[in-house]
Every structure is written in C-alpha cells, then in structure tokens.
Give the backbone structure.
Amino acid sequence: MEPWRTAIVDSRNGEIRFRGYDVTALMSGRSFTDVIFLLHQGRLPSSAERRLLDAILIGVADHGSGAPSCAASRLALSGNRQSLSAAVAAGILAVGDDHGGAGMGCMEMIAAGIDVAKRDGISLEASATRTVQEARARKKRLPGFGHRVHSVDPRSTVLLEMARADHVAGDGVAFVEAMEKAIAREIKPLPMNIDGSLAAILHDMGFAPSFGRLVFIIGRVAGLSAEVSEELTREKAMRIKIPVEYDGEAARRLT
Amino acid sequence: MEPWRTAIVDSRNGEIRFRGYDVTALMSGRSFTDVIFLLHQGRLPSSAERRLLDAILIGVADHGSGAPSCAASRLALSGNRQSLSAAVAAGILAVGDDHGGAGMGCMEMIAAGIDVAKRDGISLEASATRTVQEARARKKRLPGFGHRVHSVDPRSTVLLEMARADHVAGDGVAFVEAMEKAIAREIKPLPMNIDGSLAAILHDMGFAPSFGRLVFIIGRVAGLSAEVSEELTREKAMRIKIPVEYDGEAARRLT
Amino acid sequence: MEPWRTAIVDSRNGEIRFRGYDVTALMSGRSFTDVIFLLHQGRLPSSAERRLLDAILIGVADHGSGAPSCAASRLALSGNRQSLSAAVAAGILAVGDDHGGAGMGCMEMIAAGIDVAKRDGISLEASATRTVQEARARKKRLPGFGHRVHSVDPRSTVLLEMARADHVAGDGVAFVEAMEKAIAREIKPLPMNIDGSLAAILHDMGFAPSFGRLVFIIGRVAGLSAEVSEELTREKAMRIKIPVEYDGEAARRLT
Amino acid sequence: MEPWRTAIVDSRNGEIRFRGYDVTALMSGRSFTDVIFLLHQGRLPSSAERRLLDAILIGVADHGSGAPSCAASRLALSGNRQSLSAAVAAGILAVGDDHGGAGMGCMEMIAAGIDVAKRDGISLEASATRTVQEARARKKRLPGFGHRVHSVDPRSTVLLEMARADHVAGDGVAFVEAMEKAIAREIKPLPMNIDGSLAAILHDMGFAPSFGRLVFIIGRVAGLSAEVSEELTREKAMRIKIPVEYDGEAARRLT
C-alpha cells in the first residue's frame, strides 16, 4: 500500500506540526479556535476572524437537550454507559440536512450565486433574485431561511453585527441579505436563520462549503459532551422509556 | 505497512471464499444463519445448532420501538434522513452492558464457573453456588438473571426447551440452571432472562464470550433496519421533540 | 409528548409480537431470514423468497478484510477494544453510495423505469434503452453495472439463476437484463454486478428501494462482527499503523 | 413520559441560555473554549484556566493521519462520501482506553490517590508510592505514563510549565509528579505523557474524571474534521485498499 499523503499534520521524530507550526508553540500562544481555523484553512485567523469563528461555534453548541442530536446521545448512554465515545458519536449521527446541516447547502448556494453574478456580469441582488425565483419554480427549500420557532433568530442578528463591525462581511453576507429581501418580495418574509448567517460569514472567511456542516459538528460536540456527562452523573442506566403505541396487524397465528 | 492477516475471507482472482467455502456455493445451498455461524466458528452448524442460532437471533431482533437502541436510530434519522447507515449505527451504539449486553458477561461467568469446577474437582452445582455467594458478598449483579418486566421471560423458556430437545444443551445450560436454583436459595428467586439462556446455549455451541454481545447486535440490526424504514416512510423530518425541563442556574449576566 | 406509533413490534404484558406474530412462535419454527423479511414487509416469505433473501445476505456478508467497512471496524477496535458496539458501528458508517450502497440507487432506477414503461405504454426494453441513453447524455453512472475487479460477478450469476429457477424473477429482473443489453449496445459491455441483481430481485419480492441499502448493512454485520472478533482475539491494541507521507507547508514559526 | 431534567441549556421563548448565560452574550464576548468549560463546570474559567484548556484541546487535536481515529474517519468517507457526520463519528468510535483514553483512567487514579492521602493522613508522595507499588504487584499499567514514541513528550512539558506559571497546578500536578519519581524508583523511568499531564491539570481545575475522555473527543474532532475535509477534496471514493493476506482454511467443498 502506498502511504497516504496529507498536508495537515507532520508527525515525525517526536515532533508534531500542524500545517507547519509546532504544536507546542500553538499550545503556548494560540486558542483552540485558532487551531480549528488553521487545520482547515492552512493559515491562522485574524483576531476578527477568530472572534467570528468563536461566535459561530458557541452559537451551535447546543439548543436544547431534546433536540435529535442531544437526545440520541443520551439514549445511547442510557443503554451503553461504558462508552462515552459511542454516546457522543450517536449524537453526531443525528446531524444532517434537517438538523444542523443547512449551513453546507447554504454555502453551496452562496458560492453558486456569486459565481453566476461574476459569470453573467449581473449584480449580487439580481443573482439572489434569480436564485429565489428558481427555487420557487422548482418548489425547493432555501437553506438558511425560515425557522421552526423564532421569527427572528437572535444568534443570527449577533453574527451579522459582529461581521460588519469587524469588516469580515463581504460578498457572502451581501448575497444572503439580498436573498432575504428577494424572498420577502417573491415568496413571503422568512427570517435568515443561524445557518444562513454562519454560511455567509464562513464563505467570506474563505471556508469550503463542507465546513458549513463540519463547524456544526465541532461546535455541537461541546454540547453533546456536556449532555452525556450530565446523563452519566444525574441519571440511572435504562431510565429512558419512550412511550410507544402499536397500531399494526392484530395478533395472528403462524400456520 | 505489512498486510493484515485474516482467516475469515479469501478474496482473490474474482473468487470469494468464507473460511474456505466458495461464497456462491454457500449462497445456493445454505442459510444466512449458517454463514453467521461459519464466519465466527470456522465450521458449519448442525441443523439443531442452526435452529438454535436462528431462535436466538429472532429473540433479540426487537422488543419495542422505545428501547434505547431503536429510539436512538429513529432520533438519528429524524435529524439526518439522508443516511440510513448513520441511523442504524446510532442504534447499535446504544447496545452495552445495560441494554442487550448481559449475554457477554454471562458467557464469561459460565466459562469461569465451569473452569473452577474442573480445576477444583467440584460439581457444577457447587461451583454455581460459589459464584452466587461471591457475587452476593461483593454486591455484584449476576448477568443473565432478573428482568425489569417479566417474572418469567417466555423467550428464555423456548430457548431452553429447544436446546434440550435438540441435545445441544451441555455444561453451559446445566451451569445456568444450577445458578438459578442457587440464586433462589441464597438471594431470592430471580428468573433466568434471555441473556442467561442464550449465553448458556452459545457456550454449549462453542462460541467465545464476545459473541454474546455480537449476536445481539447482529439480531438487533434486523429490528433497527425495520424501525428506520418505518420512520422514513411514515414520519416527517424533525418530528421528534423530547420534552425537557430546565432546573439549573437562573438567568444571569456576564460581567 | 405523544407516543410514537409503530406497526412493527407490539410489546405489552410480557408478550412480544412482530407484525402480529408471537416472537416465541417465530423462534420455534422460523428462520432469522424469515423474520428479516417479515419485519420489513409485514408478511412471511415463501420458501423461494426466503432462499433468495438468504442468498443475498450471504452474498454481501463480506468480500475482504481490507474493504472500507471491515477496515474501519478493525481500526476502531484497535484504539477502542472496550466497545464491540463501537467497532461494528464504525464499519457500518463506511457503507454509502460508493461501498455497498448501489443497490438502493439501482432499485430506484428499476422502479422508475418500470413506471415509465407503464405510463407511456412502452416495453421494458424501450424503457431500459431510454434510461441508458439519458444516463449517457447526462454522464451519470448506472448503479448496479460494472465492477472494479470482476468482468463477470459470479454472485450475480448465481442470484439470477436462483430467481429464475424459483419463479421469483419478474419485471425487475427483466428490466435489469434489458438494461445490460442496452448498455452493451449504447455504451460498452458492463457486467451486471451483485448490486444490480439483488436490486432487481428485491424489487420483484416487493421491497422498497431503501431496503437495497439496508440489506447490505444487515448482511455485512455478519462479516463485520467476525472481523471484529478476529481482531480482538488475534491482534494487539494499537497494532495498526497506516503509513503517511506529509507533503504540506514546510516548518514555520509563529510570529 | 416525564420530561427530561437538565441544568445545561434553557431554551424557551426564542431565548437560549447556557448555564444561565444568554447565548448571544457569550457569542459576543467569550471564546468557544470558555463555553466548553462553562457547559461542563457551570462556571466560566479564569484567563489562566482558559489558556490551559486551550492548550489541552490543541495538544490532542491530531497527531497523525494514520492514527486509528483519523484513519477510521478517512476509511468511512472513502466508502460513504455522502455523510460527513458518519465519517467524523467513525473516527470518534476509535477513541478508547488504548487511543486517547488514558486521561480518564489517570484522573480516577489521581482522585483516588489524593483521597487516600487525606483519609490516611499521609503525604501525596507516600500515597503516590503506594499507588505505584500496588500497580506493580497487580501487574497493572499506570495510565498517563510511558509512550510508544517519545522518551519525553514535549506537549506534556509545555502543559506542566503553563500550569505552574499560571498557578493552576495544585494537588493533581503534585501527585503525578510524585508518581513519576516513584515509578522511576520502583519500576523504571517512564516519562509522564500528555494524558498524565492533562489529567492532573483538569483535576486541579475541578473537572470530573469522565472529562479526561471527553476533552480528547472535543479536541480530536478539530483534527478529524480537517482530515475528512482533506480526504474529500484531495482523494477519490474507494481509493483506500488495505492489503490483506489470507492464512485460513484451504479451499474446501460443501457436502
């Protein structure tokens, strides 16, 4: 087998380097969030970029113990208290397009919309309107807009304010704001949710769309680990009994 | 890297052999349960052994959609409907000592108890009594005995009857039956549950203790896959909302 | 929270019923494969259907310890020997469109192709040709055809022979055979692989497309569990060291 | 079903509070590492505590793409490129006693050793010596000491220097340093590894032993996500072929 090639970590002769930087130097002078940025982008963030990535990771860390990710972790631990890894992993497996995953789809939509604007020489506003009209025509959901609970998601507001104040906001933020207006005009007012604002900001900081999903996983592991820890300390094994109602075939005999 | 060594599957030149047998020959003439037995033991089962392994796999396939394994699968799918693998895996991660895992501990206890009988030249009954007395002294649970719901687990009764009728029952079954009597005498009557009876029978068919856990996983995947399939067909994304009550720190301000 | 509704398992008063049948009755008289069929379809299979499902499950159980699923299980165990559940789950997580997952896509393609034939009143051959031409035009892969290793997959041959001999083959088998001819004519000869033949047969037995992925997971757990068991018995913790070559940024200093 | 109780997150009326603090306030003014600390301990860290937790998370984030956790993530993605959640989860499942998990065992050992010192009115040195002698007598490994590669782990040196400079070092650090001396005297010189030093520092910051495992998972997700991202961008599906050598039963016929 040929060796795997990697540009992430160099681990030789007792030294470990992340993207060229000695791990012990990073440990002495940098934050975990700096290193998350570094591992994914190959460069260290500016202070403004670090603050924004911190805010995004905090914003997705948890939003209730009953959400599918947290509840799956607790259920796994309830049956299998011997493996903390298994419980955290079970929670991550609940992350997908419908739960914590809209950021990736939104980043792809932003990248495509900006590309179209450049290619066709139209404004971001015109490209955003086109994106909304096409989605309406094909009856597709627009990732990053609308919310089950909030009419305005305060986390989204904070992120966008920080991005503007810190001069990180660029084409990505401009594009989602144009989309929000186009949606209100073409469909109905739908607030930009946290997936929409984090997608725009991550785009403007240079991340690939897949990071829109990965950032949710990284942030959510903070919450999942705390949920698992509380379940272990406060509760007994097998305490969770989900009520179930059977409505299938009546009792029957084998022939 | 040196190649990994394996005695399970030989896959070369377009041929696949399981433990020496051509996979297409097994497909034409043998059952899936035969192959589970073969992959783990390196030999094909007798008809009686196949019937018993079938009965065990069926007995653990499911026992309610609200059990931690099934519920974790459904929760994972609720947030992440794009990955059936993730949903099934989440359910497996809930399998541990407290849920579906007592078979392994019971098989270790049976093997140890039979070894002690041979080593010290005492009867299986005497060894079973010693095992029970030691567990009582150390306040340890005896895996395979007692049940949250049933006073007698009908699945356990069926397995033991089949094992006796088929002449598969040996020292393992004799030992757990001696244990059941010793427990009633030394502690209080506790019915042998399905983990206890499947552990005894798997021991008598020559399986290693780890198979006591693996057999549960293999059987339960049948149930998990059906639960996942039903959730996908009958229910919508994010339909599961576990009710939560907050009882922590009151609202406070950052300083 | 409202109780979850289910038609799969009824577990009340110490009785467990799968789709209406008492679990102990199934244990006494039916095979594990019968119960897999029952849980998914709500009816027990005919003998021919059982033989075919057995053959499919055996055919996908394993095809080499170095495949992503088996290797992921072994790697997980190498670092985490305390959790057999975690190791089996890690292997399942490697199952997707590219590994063991083409059956689902192929079942969707078969169902769509047969629908088109009915809707437009054309023959299955004509619908198969159209499917192939469209895929060629859009440069899309045709799931179920072509193989990395085999020019003809012997497992596929066996399955189709059994399906014909047992009179289970119907429109699904007819459609994939028409596709194989159309592919040879319109593109180049590509053998139908095991995903293609199992998809056709599962379609003809009445399974939903998602079962094309789930059947691989159910069958593969037999192999994964044996791989995990061998790794635990034969090998030491942390014995696996994948060789890696670093080709990223040269060593640099933090400023 | 009774609602689940939790003291971690309060999510009501569109507001989300972590341990009483509004999530938007945390997003504006605190780091992700602060929030990890907060979620687990119920209080925000001092600057020194934050720096140490940052250093620990960075120190465990990655140490080579060929390690079981990273390699399991890459293998899972190789077969299943559609699910980033599944790939990250597969890597986490490789975390156990032998890979990334010694911190938890070491924290339990530290807590027990300090308890013994208090209970029996002996010095931490005497308690450390007793711990080492008992482990030697029972032939048990001492978690947190010794290393496959390094004679001295530079990450461990940095952590201990920071803990002392920041006045975070307390009984935990004193105990593991006493253990290092006792091991050199009673057995042979074995360097304290990163699991040993992070365990001591986490103990001194007030974390429960389970956090010794969870902190590795939280930090490692940063590395796993980057490995998964690189695999997705740089490599093709199914590119990983682990070489395997069959040494089992010779080819044989079914009878």
Observations:
- Chain A touches chain B at residues 1, 64-69, 71-72, 75-76, 78-83, 86-87, 89-90, 93-101, 148, 237-238, 240-244 (CB under 8 Å).
- Residues 210-234 of chain A form the longest helix (25 residues).
- The longest strand of chain A covers residues 9-12.
